[in-house]
Each structure stands twice: as C-alpha cells, then as structure tokens.
Design the sequence.
C-alpha cells in the first residue's frame, strides 16, 4: 500500500506501525468464524422439513468476546437452554445444530435425555444428533447444552428439529461385529477401529446411545466381543485389537446402498507370552469423576476390558473411584482386577496413590510441602505413591523443572528429597519422546542414591485415546489377576519388580535375578538373559543395556514376520564395584490409521537389577560409593584419583559433585589437579568438572 | 630527534614503536605466540566424522526409524529457527538447559550426529566434547558432520524452519 495522503505522511513511522498492527488486530477480530470445513461428514439437510428452533447465532459463557462477530460479544448466559413445543415423538427424529469455539465437553440434553456432546473445535461445526423415540413430550420441551462448569465461551446457532429420524436421514444401519479368541473360539472384548476407503476414521453414529463406547472411528465391544457400529453405505475396513499382547485382525466390509445390514467376524489371538507377569495401568480417568475428557465410568470399564489389561488402578483427579460395581453390572468382573486409587492433584505435582479402601477419606490436595503431602496421602491408606509426568506440561514447568533437578548430580536445586515410590517414565498421553527426558532424570536420580522406581501408564481421559497403551508389567507368581489380589500387586510395586511397556514386552535377568532384586556378582561378569517380545503388528529393532545409566551394550534385533520373541544370552562385564542394570528395547510404531497413539516409537524398559559388584553383601549407589571413597582418601587427592580410576563414569560424576560440595579450605587447587591427574580414564571428565567449571565460576 | 609535525605521522610513529615492542616482548616470553602457527585453523578433534553422502543417508533413515539417530544443531537459536535438519535438536554452545532437554534422547541413541554452520565453525566440536567429557555420552556414538549447515543447504538437503522440538 502506498501512503499518499499528506496527513498520513505526517504520522511518525512507529505510530504508523502501531496503527497498522492495531488495524490488523481489529481486522482479525472482525473476521467471521472460520467456515465449515469440507470434511463436514453430514449429508445436506437444508431441504429437509424441520422445526426451526434457533436460527441466529448466540453466545454462551462468561467472557466478553468482541472478536466473535457472528454473535453478541456479551454472553447471554453461562449455558444454553430453550423451551419449545413439539409433538411427542413415537418415531426417532434428528436434531441439527452448529457450534464454534468449543473447548469443553458440552452435553446436549433434551428433556433430560443426553443426546451427545458438541464437537470440541474452534471452527464452525455442524452436528446431527439422534432424538430417540419418546424423548419429545406433549407440552413444553426443554433443550439445553451445558459445559462441565461455566467458563467456556461458545457460539451456537442453526438449531433445527428434523421431521425425519436420524437413521433415515443419514441412511445408517448397524454392522454386526463379532471378535473371537482363536484359542477358545469364544467372544473376547476388543477395540474396533473403522476406517473409510481413504483410511480416515469413519463417522460412527449413536455415540453414547449404543451401549458401546463409541467415538469417531472407534468402538469397543461388550464382554462377549460383540459390537454394532452404525455405518452408512460404502466400503469400510474394520480392525480389531486387544492391547499389547494380542494380534490385530481386519476385514473389508461393504455396506449396501439399500437398507440392508452386514456382519463380520474377526479372529484375534494372544501372541505374547507374559506368564509370570501381570499388566497394569496405574493412571486412568473418567469424565464422570475427573470432570474432563469424555469417557464415562461405564465406558472406561468397557475400554479396559477391550485393551486386555490385567490390573486397572482408577485415578480420577482428587477422587477415589471404584470400578468394581460397574464391572459387575457389565459382566466384566473377571476381565481385570480393579484397584481404587486417586490422582492427588496438587500445586506440587500430580500423584497417583493406591490402594484405597472404598470408605477411605480423600487426602488433602492443598498441602504445599512434599513431606507433609506424602505423609497425608499414605495416612489415608495408600501404600504406593507415584509422581506422574514429572516434566509436564513443559519440561521446565513440571515438578522436576520447578524443583530444579540437576541431571549431573541427581540433586534437586530446591533441596527436595523425593519421597515417592516411583515416577512415571512412559505416559502414552504425553508428547512423543518426552519419556527420554524423564529417563535422563531417572538415571540421574538413581545414581544420586534415590531408590525411586519407574512405571508406565496411559493417563487416558477419553475413549479414543487407548487405555493401557502405556502399561507396567509386574512380576507375580499368579497369572490370574483376580486370584493374585491387591496385596500381590502392591508388593510388586514396593519391590520394584516392574517392567515398563509401550507396545513391547521386555524381561531381563542377571545371574537369575530380575528387576527389583539384588545379586552378588561372582567375579567381573554376570550372565544376562534378555527377552524382547511383541505381537505381529509390533517390531523391536534394538535392545540396549545400561549400567549405572550408561549404555554398555547394544544389540540389533530383526524379525521375519508375525509375532516375535527375541531371546538373548551373554556374559556382561562389570565395572568391579556395585552398580545397577536396566534394559531398554525400542522399535518403530506401526503405521496405518488403526493404530492410535501419540508416540513415535514402541518401547519397553526394565527396572533396575542391583548388582553387588564388590561382593561385600551390601549394595551402594554411585553416590554412596563416591562418598565412601572420599571418606577413605580424604587427605590424599592422588590416592583418591587412583581409586576413582577403577570406577565407572557415574561414580566419577558423583565424586566430582561431592568434591565441589566440600568446604573450600579442605581442598586446594593443587589437590583438584592431583585428583584429575590420577583418575585414569576419567581425567578429562574430572578436569572439566573440577577445573574448568571452577574457572568458569 | 625532531618529532613529526603532523598528527597522522605522530600516530604512525607511536603505533610502529608499540608494534616493535610487542614483537620483542613476544619473542622473549616463554609462552609467546608462534608466528608460524595458524591460530584460526579449525581445532583438531578425534571424533568420528560423517560425509555428506552418509549424512544424506542418515537423514533419510531418521525419518523412517525415528529415535536411533539424534541430530544436534550446535548453532545459535536464531540460525536454527531460520532452517535446520528436520527433527534435529538445537543445542547452542553454553546453553545447559538445551543440552539437558536432549540428554535423554542422547543416552538412548545409536548415533549422535552434530553439525554447526560449517567452514571454520567449532561449535560442533565443543558440543561433542561436552557430551562425552561432561555427561559421559559414549564416545563411539558421537559423530561430527564437518561440512555443516552451509554445505547441506547448498546441496538442497531437507530442511525445516521454526521450532521443531
């Protein structure tokens, strides 16, 4: 744009820029809501005879929004209500509406009957909802749309009650799906994913009304493996799966143009042998009690059965939820053991705590001291406390960021001594690769002497986000979780007899001892047995072994086809002092729209096996080893360096940490130089940590 | 001696005298600068290097099997934002927070490939030394792509702008 007006030319450049920015900003505010997207899945109903209920756009919420030009800037009310008159319906009808700027789960109800939720989208979305027979009544009818709590501002308009029923207007009908366990020939609970011919998630109708947890492209079966996804005419691919240990099956189904229905049977089988281990998801939510997400209590109970998990810990936010009555009502009690837990949601962080008795009162989530909070959580009955997602929402904003965890020393800058039993390393709802950052945290903590274990979970809040995709395998002699009981589960968590999973299964022993156990090494080597297994849809391409958080061995893995069960045995050289061993396996995530995940990899990670490398019958962490060395050679830096040369890098880093914490008068610069000069393979590292860092300060 | 009358000549005389004194002092000092040495040459290092061809293969591989290879871009944040190898972490020199964010990925990687601008840029070497000698990352997995970003861009390699991680 050329500025030609003399008046405009007199405006100073900064003022002109500010005016331009303001103009652009106001211009943006004045925009219409984004148009309906071309992906609108609903048929054109504009010519359908209908009762117009609300043709103009209206604004609901509690905030002034001048930028939304389609509706008044001031909200009319916190939520939408409308009284209207329509004849009682014997036949099904359909409600059409448009909404925009929706962040929360606004539930649409007609005369108290839930019809569905508004799509959580900023753009304008059109929605058709089924109005079941008998919902409308003679006399005034009440239509409403409410958020979980007032505070989410939305716009709503274009409400019409169609004369025709939903099923008739859309031409949909049920597809009868039966999922069978190949081993028994009986139906088995499973997760279905339905994709259209282009590989996109199919629009599945009647969510919340079918008796099956149903969302876009996803439906879970009942206890007998039956499901009835409602589909329109066309070609669809139906996939069935049942979590980490089971195969995946799919079939292409053609729904005829006429009103005919179709049926399909899908056979899956258990492919991964996990005998001796039970799978457990320690982090699960319901919309019913957490107030966000979208999985109701009934839906959560069914999704867990469909994911083939053995143990489910209910952890709604500051609520102790019991799945057992709902499991009984749905015939799913034998599918998995449920444990009452609580995600104690505090300013310090989120803590999954379990088990709680049904009648237990809730911990005080307002406490702001780590020690007091931990004591209060346990005081209400919990025996296990897990710090969840320590780097969420952002690495620097999670508890480990706020408490300033130092990845060299494993110490918290705040002086915190972490009181929990475990931290969540795999959380399948977190951004991809976030777990690697928490892994570095964990390695540092373990080297500093913390005995904290690692766990995996899903943190699923919704039906579509698979429960138990992140899961912890816990060692248990009893393979039936119901017979094993709560005490055996708690014991495994207390002992650290745990292996984390995100799609792969990993088992490791050193001289016969597994995670959470301690062995005394006979000489400088241990016999390691490593097993990495996965279903036919999975793959593992590499396994790594870490001693004291440093990789000491890497093994490439290859699979031919189908499921795999890699078994590796070798002698692992030890550093000659106490150390801890973990194994990690990784592989690419499956491709195809049927695999729903936020993660870029499959992975599995063991908990530590403690190796008493010096044979004294006790186990000491790298920090404790370093402290003992300083005690033994306090006055002779050269001897200290010589002793360090026989230890690994983790001990060297801990020794440097302790050395720097000594009073300045107790060690001269010459002592530091002598320590570095005699520390053999660690000379360069010690020089950087003790000399260069001192110079930098 | 009669002092030069003009100011420029006086300045030239002072500079010449100072230079002569500096050379004399340097030649007498036991740790004086060596006149035959190239102090601006790229420092030597003992890390493994990857060629342009290998780097190209790695970038392709990275997209298929994310996680095995970690790319570290050792340049300044602004340069990274303008363009970088897709999927790379930006770990500028003297930015411990950026290094700590990438540390977990480095500990589980099979290969670490570090690059900086290219030419005489040394930041990739300094970063490699920090990884190995300060954080204990396995020396054998650390590689330096010496041609650097300029050469990669010149040959039309894949790139991405903005924040990537």
Sequence:
């Amino acid at each position: 744009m050329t500025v030609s007006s003399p008046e405009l030319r007199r405006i100073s450049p900064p003022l002109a820029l500010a005016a331009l920015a303001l103009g652009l900003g106001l211009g943006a505010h004045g925009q219409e809501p984004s148009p309906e997207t071309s992906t609108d899945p609903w048929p054109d109903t504009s010519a359908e005879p209908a009762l117009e209920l609300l043709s103009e756009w209206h604004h609901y919420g509690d905030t002034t929004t001048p930028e939304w030009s389609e509706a008044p800037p001031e909200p009319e009310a916190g939520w939408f209500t409308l009284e209207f008159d329509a004849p009682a319906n014997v036949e099904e009808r359909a409600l059409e509406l448009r909404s925009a700027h929706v962040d929360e789960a606004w539930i649409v109800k007609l005369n108290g009957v839930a019809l569905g939720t508004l799509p959580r989208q900023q753009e304008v979305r059109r929605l058709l909802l089924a109005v079941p027979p008998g919902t409308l009544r003679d006399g005034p009818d009440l239509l409403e749309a409410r958020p979980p709590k007032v505070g989410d501002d939305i716009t709503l308009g274009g409400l019409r009650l169609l004369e025709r029923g939903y099923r008739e207007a859309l031409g949909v009908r049920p597809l009868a799906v039966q999922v069978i366990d190949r081993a028994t020939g009986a139906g088995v609970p499973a997760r279905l994913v339905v994709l259209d011919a282009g590989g996109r998630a199919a629009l599945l109708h009647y969510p919340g009304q079918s008796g099956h947890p149903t969302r876009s492209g996803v439906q879970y079966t009942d206890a007998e493996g039956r499901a009835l996804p409602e589909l329109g005419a066309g070609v669809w691919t139906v996939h069935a799966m049942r979590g980490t240990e089971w195969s995946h099956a799919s079939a292409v189904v053609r729904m005829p143009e006429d009103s005919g229905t179709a049926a399909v049977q899908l056979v899956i089988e258990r492919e991964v042998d996990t005998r001796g281990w039970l799978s457990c998801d320690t982090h699960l939510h319901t919309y019913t009690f957490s107030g966000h997400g979208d999985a109701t209590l009934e839906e959560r109970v069914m999704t867990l059965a469909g994911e083939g998990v053995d143990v489910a810990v209910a952890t709604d936010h500051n609520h102790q939820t019991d799945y057992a009555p709902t499991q009984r009502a749905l015939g799913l009690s034998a599918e998995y053991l449920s444990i009452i837990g609580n995600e104690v949601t505090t300013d310090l962080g989120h803590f999954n705590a379990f088990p709680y008795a049904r009648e237990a009162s809730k911990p005080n989530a307002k406490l702001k001291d780590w020690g007091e909070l931990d004591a209060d959580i346990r005081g209400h009955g919990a025996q296990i406390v897990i710090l969840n997602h320590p780097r969420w929402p952002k690495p620097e904003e999670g508890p480990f960021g706020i408490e300033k965890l130092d990845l060299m020393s494993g110490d918290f800058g705040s002086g915190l001594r972490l009181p929990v039993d475990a931290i969540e390393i795999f959380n399948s709802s977190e951004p991809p690769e976030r777990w690697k950052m928490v892994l570095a945290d964990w390695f540092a903590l373990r080297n500093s002497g913390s005995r904290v274990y690692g766990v995996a979970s899903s943190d699923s809040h919704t039906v579509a986000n698979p429960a138990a995709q992140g899961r912890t395998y816990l060692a248990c002699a009893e393979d039936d979780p119901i017979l094993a009981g709560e005490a055996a589960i708690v014991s495994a968590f207390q002992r650290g007899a745990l292996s984390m999973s995100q799609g792969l299964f990993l088992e490791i022993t050193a001289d016969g001892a597994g995670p959470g156990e301690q062995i005394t090494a006979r000489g400088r080597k241990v016999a390691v047995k490593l097993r990495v297994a996965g279903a036919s849809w999975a793959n593992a391409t590499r396994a790594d072994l870490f001693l004291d958080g440093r990789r000491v061995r890497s093994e490439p893995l290859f699979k031919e086809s189908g499921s795999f069960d890699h078994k590796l045995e070798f002698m692992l050289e030890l550093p000659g002092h106490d150390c801890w061993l973990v194994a990690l396996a990784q592989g690419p995530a499956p491709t195809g729209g049927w695999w729903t995940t936020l993660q870029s990899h499959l992975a599995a990670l063991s908990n530590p096996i403690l190796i008493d490398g010096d044979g004294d019958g006790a186990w000491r962490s790298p920090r404790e080893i370093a402290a003992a060395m300083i005690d033994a050679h306090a006055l002779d830096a050269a001897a200290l360096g010589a002793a360090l040369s026989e230890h690994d890098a983790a001990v060297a880093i801990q020794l440097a940490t302790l050395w720097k914490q000594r009073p300045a008068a107790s060690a001269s610069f010459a002592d530091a130089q002598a320590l570095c000069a005699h520390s053999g393979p660690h000379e360069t590292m010690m020089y950087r940590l003790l000399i260069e860092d001192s110079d930098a300060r | 001696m009669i002092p030069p009358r003009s100011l420029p000549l006086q300045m030239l005389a002072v500079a010449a005298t100072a230079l002569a004194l500096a050379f004399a002092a340097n030649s007498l000092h036991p740790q004086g600068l060596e006149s035959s040495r190239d102090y601006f040459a790229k420092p030597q290092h003992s890390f493994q290097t990857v060629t342009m061809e290998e780097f190209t293969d790695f970038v392709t591989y990275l997209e298929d099997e994310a996680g095995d290879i970690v790319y570290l871009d050792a340049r300044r944040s602004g340069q990274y934002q303008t363009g970088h190898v897709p999927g790379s972490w930006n770990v500028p020199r003297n930015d411990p927070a950026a290094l700590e964010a990438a540390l977990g990925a480095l500990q589980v990687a099979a290969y670490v490939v570090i690059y900086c601008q290219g030419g005489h840029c040394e930041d990739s070497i300094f970063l490699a030394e920090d990884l190995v000698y300060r954080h204990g990352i396995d020396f054998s997995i650390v590689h330096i792509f010496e041609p650097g970003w300029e050469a990669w861009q010149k040959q039309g390699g894949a790139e991405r702008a903005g924040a990537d991680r």
Remarks:
- Residues 1-37 of chain B form one domain.
- The mean pLDDT of chain B is 86.
- The radius of gyration of chain B is 22 Å.
